[in-house]
Amino acid sequence: MVATFCHNLVLTLMLKLILSSGFAHDRQTGHNLTVEDVEGFPLAAPILPPAVDRPVELPETQAQDNSPRALSFAELKDLIESGDTENIPHNKHIPNQLNECVPSQSSAPVRRKPWEVTHSLAS
User: Fold this and answer.
1) What pTM does this model have?
2) Distances 10 to 13, 43, 44, 83 between C-alpha atoms, Å
3) Are the C-beta atoms of residues 30 and 66 closer than 8 Å to each other?
């Protein structure tokens, strides 16, 4: 009975935690978590404290694809300081020159300033 209570308590806490941070998880992994996914996740062993490093096994439904992993702040800092910005995921290269195309002509009329507006008073 105590084991069932602990299991239900852990499931409830996992549901709250995962569903509250579901948006960030979905963006990073590309997998949309549902309540059924969380409830179906096996609780194989007793939960260890966070200080204990233990590999986490993901079920087949949550296997990650080969998308670039999220870099830590220290890794980003090292890449920027070393000038190796090509290895930063989703980093656009912006050329250091002006656009050489002919600028387009404005089709909007010039806005008048408040003191230039003529007020017509109906008599």
Assistant:
1) 0.28
2) 5, 9, 12, 45
3) no
DSSP code for 88 = S
Tokens representing 55?
């590999």
What is the average per-residue pLDDT within 78-93? 88
**What DSSP designation does 16 have?**
H
**Amino acid at residue number 101:** C
Q: If we measure between CA atoms, which residue out of 56, 69, 87 comes closest to residue 29?
A: 69
Yes or no: say if 36 and 18 are a contact pair by the CB < 8 Å rule.
Answer: no
- Where b means 16+ CB within 10 Å and e means fewer, 31-69 reads eebeeeebeebeeeeeeeeeeeeeeeeeeeeeeeeeeee
Distance CA 97, CA 102 (A): 15
DSSP 38: H
Q: Name the 3-class secondary structure at 49.
A: coil
Q: Report residue 96 as tokens.
A: 């250091």
Query: Across residues 63-81, what is the average pLDDT?
Result: 80
Does 106 score more than 80 pLDDT? Answer: yes
Which runs of E-coded beta strand occur in 7-112? none
Torsions phi, psi for 13 (to 5 deg): -65, -40
